[in-house]
Amino acid sequence: MLTAEDTNATDRPLREFVRDTLRTRIFEGYYEPGARLVERDLAAEFNVSRLPIREALRMLRQEGLIQDRSSRGTEVAGLSAKDVEDLFDVRESLEVLACRLAATRATAEDLKQLEDLLDDADRFLAKGSIHEAHRANSDFHDAITAIANNGFLRSALEPLQGRMHWLFRHVSDLPELIKEHRELYAAIASGDPDLAAAQSASHIGKYREQFPEDPPAAETHRKRT
Question: I want to staple 208 with a disulfide (CB 3.0 to 4.6 A). Which of 88, 178, 193, 203 is the partner?
């Protein structure tokens, strides 16, 4: 459990710790779609005031991971088959642009960061740390957006990141996913924006085809009581 004391060793705001913890619980199936998130209960669990809880929930709401229902309050959002299709449409448009820009703007330091994340994913996978491998893969995509260095693009992608990461937590063939990411890295490192854009479109299209008509609800974990 995360408490206020856990933040003493870092300068990150408490609301971000709460957000990250709740986001991870959603990704890993601790909270399933429809699970209620009550400010009062979360404040007691985290041993903090309601303010950082409220701020964390606001950020998760912007990411599309939670929603407000008049009769039930705040609950974890689910995704319909149409939601998944729409998400892939938007993701393809925005991430292809991000990779195109990254190919022309990436510094040697940026490329090293991407390579390190790929190595992290491989290392975690070899250790059987599946959640950490997924996190490294998600961070890889986020890093590409940062390297693109376009504020409007980042603002457009940020509300979608949570849902996209949640979807890709359900990709079962992690070695193949990491292989695809290495190919995407090579395209970006080449400095050829057309090659990077084409590789990104191919990568996204491949995983669009793999998702079933009924999107996954959650992993095998269950919400604890």
Answer: 88
This prediction's pTM: 0.75
Total structural domains in the chain? 2
Report the SS3 class of residue 52: helix
Q: Which residues contact 141 (CB under 8 A, 6 or more apart)?
A: 95, 164
Q: What is the mean pLDDT of residues 136-144?
A: 94
Residue-range definition of the domain harbouring residue 106: 81-210
Whether residues 101 and 156 fall in one domain? yes
> Over the chain, what is the mean pLDDT?
86
Q: Both tokens of residue 74?
A: 């705040």
Structural contact between residues 3 and 196, judged by C-beta atoms closer than 8 angstroms = no
Question: Which amino acid appears at position 133 of this protein?
Answer: A
**pLDDT (0 to 100) of residue 43:** 96
Read off the tokens for 213: 């008509």
**Identity at 14, one-letter amino acid code:** L
The encoded tokens of residue 70 equal 């008049």
Same domain, 66 and 93: no
- Give yes or no for residue 217 having a pLDDT over 60: no
